[in-house]
Amino acid sequence: MVPNWTDKDPIIEVKNLKKDYVLGKGGWFWEKPEILHAVNDISFSVKKGETLGIVGESGCGKSTAARLIAQLIEPTGGEVFYKGKSLSKITGEQTREVRRDIQMIFQNPLASLDPRKRILQLLVEPLEIHGIGDGNSQKEKAFEMLKKVGLRPEHAYRYPHEFSGGQSQRINIARALMLEPKIVICDEPVSALDVSIQAQVINLLIELQEQLDLTYLFISHDLNVVRYFCDRIVVMYYGKIVEEGESEKIYNHPEHDYTKKLLAAIPGQRRAREQINE
Q1: β-strand 51-55 against 215-220: which pairing, if any?
Q2: Which has the closest alpha carbon to 2: 93, 82, 78?
Q3: What is the value of pTM for the model shown?
Q4: SS3 content of the chain, % helix, strand, coil (to 5)
Q5: pLDDT score, position 45
């Protein structure tokens, strides 16, 4: 978006990003309202083609951070830059471009699909909204994308309730890719799936990244999954980033006590449990 931006520069930069929620007013007029700092002054960057994992327990602010980057909610402070351009300063066609380029896959696969619509309708809808192609080319694109995610053309004429959780998430992935995005934000995309299905979906995401030159932000509470899937990890705790680094470094040599506790919570991680008591 910025003329001098190159592939060597970060494709996403987050600078001092904040999101506050007012939980309630004080009991008396002189009392200040209670504020929840869901995202509290975080900064990080993502390179083109990289997979960055954002890890933490429920309520740590990782999903809020994802929605801020996807422009689904407005920040209280700070900025998100895409290809060197602040997303708070874009308008018109640039806004449409960003919405095409940054797509999101949500946690609950079935809840993300309108039960009243057939899969074909759900897949072509993004193309219709953005005015891309005609009816025939849109259908052709939908069939092509179903094939990429491991589903068959006849699946296009079924309704969401006719699919398993793993199949539903494949459909969500297909829908997210219909606009040929540059960045896909995956918000706990496998946490609602069986363990065996989780591995299939993760492997599919890896294959698609290689085929389509995608950049991923991967939100998760599971350090085992993130270690396998991500190049780098950001660990969040109470809205703040407490540790950041290469996946293997974070996994094998965690520095912050909270990261060590996350590792200790993984079944079989005796080494991590021992580190806590050192």
Answers
A1: parallel
A2: 82
A3: 0.89
A4: 40, 25, 35
A5: 96
